[in-house]
TrEMBL record:
<keyword id="KW-0479">Metal-binding</keyword>
<dbReference type="InterPro" id="IPR050910">
    <property type="entry name" value="JMJD6_ArgDemeth/LysHydrox"/>
</dbReference>
<dbReference type="GO" id="GO:0005737">
    <property type="term" value="C:cytoplasm"/>
</dbReference>
<dbReference type="GO" id="GO:0046872">
    <property type="term" value="F:metal ion binding"/>
</dbReference>
<dbReference type="InterPro" id="IPR041667">
    <property type="entry name" value="Cupin_8"/>
</dbReference>
<keyword id="KW-0408">Iron</keyword>
<dbReference type="Pfam" id="PF13621">
    <property type="entry name" value="Cupin_8"/>
</dbReference>
<comment type="subunit">
    <text>Interacts with ETF1. Interacts with the ETF1-GSPT1 complex.</text>
</comment>
<comment type="similarity">
    <text>Belongs to the JMJD6 family.</text>
</comment>
<dbReference type="GO" id="GO:0043565">
    <property type="term" value="F:sequence-specific DNA binding"/>
</dbReference>
<feature type="domain" description="JmjC">
    <location>
        <begin position="125"/>
        <end position="275"/>
    </location>
</feature>
<dbReference type="GO" id="GO:0016706">
    <property type="term" value="F:2-oxoglutarate-dependent dioxygenase activity"/>
</dbReference>
<dbReference type="GO" id="GO:0140096">
    <property type="term" value="F:catalytic activity, acting on a protein"/>
</dbReference>
<protein>
    <recommendedName>
        <fullName>2-oxoglutarate and iron-dependent oxygenase JMJD4</fullName>
    </recommendedName>
</protein>
<dbReference type="GO" id="GO:0045905">
    <property type="term" value="P:positive regulation of translational termination"/>
</dbReference>
<dbReference type="GO" id="GO:0005634">
    <property type="term" value="C:nucleus"/>
</dbReference>
<keyword id="KW-0560">Oxidoreductase</keyword>
Length: 393
C-alpha cells in the first residue's frame, strides 16, 4: 500500500503565485497527501534556460544549443519501437540530434529514422554552470537521491528531455517510486496521470502493464487525470502514480526524480516487491543453491539498480548527515542542508521508522551485515536516541 493513497482528485490543482505558496503549503497540500499539482510559469520566470534555450517565439533555440552543447553525447530513444516496455536507446552528439530534429520539422513531422526522443540526458555531468540553467525550487530541495549520489559522486537523477511534437514517453511509474518534477523550458506536454492502484485495471492476462494507455482497447478502463503543462509550468508527479507523457509541440524539459522522508516508505515497499519478484523467478533453486538469498540480491541489483545492502547504505549516508546537523545544533552547517533543524528531526523520524522495518525484514536478516559500519541496529539506536534528545528540547 502506498502512503498517501486517498480518493483521487478529479483535476490537478494549479498554484498561480510564488509569493503566496510556501514550502510548508507544498508539504501539507501535496507532498504528504501524495497529490499532483501544476505551478504557474511565474515560478520559473528567472531561469536562464528559459531565456537562452528558447527563442522569443517559444521554439527551441537550436543554434544556441549546438553552440553550447553540440559535442555532448546524449541518449536518444526511438518512440516507435517497443523493447520490454521501454524504447531502445542509442547515443549521439547533440549536434546530430538537432540535425535530425530540424530535418523532421522540414519534412512536416516525419523521418525515415523514425520518431527520436532525447531522454534522460544528465546535463550536470557535462559540466555547465547549472546556476545559469535553472534554480532548484525550494519545494523540491529535500532530495535524498541526488544528495546521496552527490556524496558518492557517481550518478544523479537530474535530466533533460527534448523532442519534436509527437514524441512521447510510454506508460510507467518512476524509478524506486520516486517523486518527479518537470519544467517545460519551451513547448507543452500532455500528461495522463493514474493514482496508485488504478494501473491494476490495465493489466493484461499475463499481469503486464500496457506500453501505451491510449490504445483503443484500454480506453474503457478508468479515466486518468489529464493535464496540459504549458511552457514554463512545473508539474509535480507524486510517488507511485503511473503516467504517460506526450509532447504537444517541439518541447524541452528539465526533470528530476527525488525521494525524501515523505515517500521513503514507498521506496522501501517497492524494493520489497522487487525482491519478491526475483525470488518467484528463481524459486525452484532455493533448496539446491547454498547462496540462494545472496544470488537473489545480486539479481535484484542488476534488475532494479539497487539491493537491500545498498538501500541500507543510502539510509546510512542520509541518516549520518542528519545526525551531524542535530549534533551540532546548527541548521545545515557543514552538510549543506538548507531546510534546518526541524527538517532534520522530521527526516530522522522517517529514517528510524523505515530502518526499523528493514532490520526486522527476514530477507534483510539473510544479508551479511558483518562489515556494515555502523551495524544497522546501532544506527537505529542512534536515530532513536537523537529523536528522544530532540523531543526533550
Ligand atoms: O517528459 C517525458 O517525456 C517524461 C517525463 C517523466 O516521465 C517524468 O518526469 O517522470
Ligand atoms: Fe516519469
Amino acid at each position: 500500500r502506498l502512503q498517501g493513497g486517498g480518493p483521487a482528485p478529479r483535476r490537478v490543482a494549479f498554484i498561480p503565485d510564488p509569493c503566496a505558496f510556501s514550502y510548508a503549503d507544498f508539504v501539507t497540500g501535496f507532498l504528504l497527501p501524495n497529490l499532483p499539482c501544476v505551478f504557474s510559469s511565474a515560478f520559473t520566470e528567472a531561469w536562464g534556460s528559459r531565456r537562452r534555450w528558447a527563442t522569443a517565439a517559444g521554439k527551441p533555440d537550436f543554434e544556441y544549443l549546438v553552440r553550447e552543447y553540440g559535442d555532448v553525447v546524449v541518449p536518444v530513444a526511438n518512440c516507435g519501437v517497443q523493447e520490454y516496455n521501454s524504447n531502445p536507446k542509442e547515443h549521439m552528439p547533440l549536434r546530430d540530434y538537432v540535425t535530425y530534429w530540424q530535418e523532421y520539422i522540414r519534412r512536416g513531422g516525419s523521418s525515415p529514422r523514425g520518431c527520436l526522443y532525447l531522454k534522460d540526458w544528465h546535463l550536470c555531468r557535462c559540466g555547465p554552470d547549472l546556476e545559469d540553467v535553472f534554480t532548484l525550487p525550494v519545494y523540491f530541495s529535500s532530495d535524498w537521491l541526488n544528495e546521496f549520489w552527490d556524496v558518492l559522486g557517481v550518478d544523479d537523477y537530474r535530466f533533460v528531455y527534448a523532442g519534436p511534437k509527437g514524441t512521447w514517453s510510454p506508460f510507467h511509474a518512476d524509478i524506486f517510486r520516486s517523486y518527479s518534477w518537470s519544467v517545460n523550458i519551451c513547448g507543452r506536454k500532455k500528461w495522463l496521470l493514474f493514482p496508485p492502484g488504478q494501473e491494476e485495471a490495465l493489466r493484461d492476462s499475463h499481469g503486464s502493464l500496457p506500453y501505451d494507455v491510449t490504445a483503443p482497447a484500454l480506453l474503457q478502463s478508468g479515466r486518468p487525470l489529464e493535464v496540459t503543462q504549458e511552457a514554463g509550468e512545473m508539474l509535480f508527479v507524486p510517488s507511485g502514480w503511473h503516467h504517460q507523457v506526450h509532447n504537444l509541440d517541439d518541447t524541452i524539459s528539465i526533470n528530476h526524480n527525488w525521494v525524501n522522508g515523505c515517500n521513503l516508505a514507498n521506496m522501501w515497499h517497492f524494493l520489497q516487491q522487487e525482491l519478491q519478484a526475483v525470488q518467484r523467478e528463481v524459486g525452484q533453486w532455493k533448496d539446491s543453491m547454498p547462496d540462494w538469498h545472496h544470488h537473489c540480491q545480486v539479481i535484484m541489483r542488476a534488475c532494479s539498480g539497487i539491493n537491500f545492502e545498498e538501500f541500507y547504505h543510502f539510509l546510512k549516508v542520509i541518516a549520518e548527515r542528519r545526525l551531524l546537523v542535530l549534533g551540532q545544533g546548527e541548521p545545515g552547517h557543514g552538510a549543506g542542508l538548507g531546510l534546518g533543524l526541524q527538517q532534520a528531526v522530521f527526516d530522522i523520524g522517517r529514517l528510524a521508522e523505515v530502518l526499523a522495518s528493514v532490520v526486522a525484514h527476514p530477507d534483510f536478516q539473510q544479508v551479511d551485515t558483518s562489515t556494515f559500519s555502523p551495524p544497522p541496529r546501532d544506527l537505529l539506536r542512534q536515530l532513536r536516541d537523537a529523536l528522544e534528545a530532540a523531543e526533550a528540547l
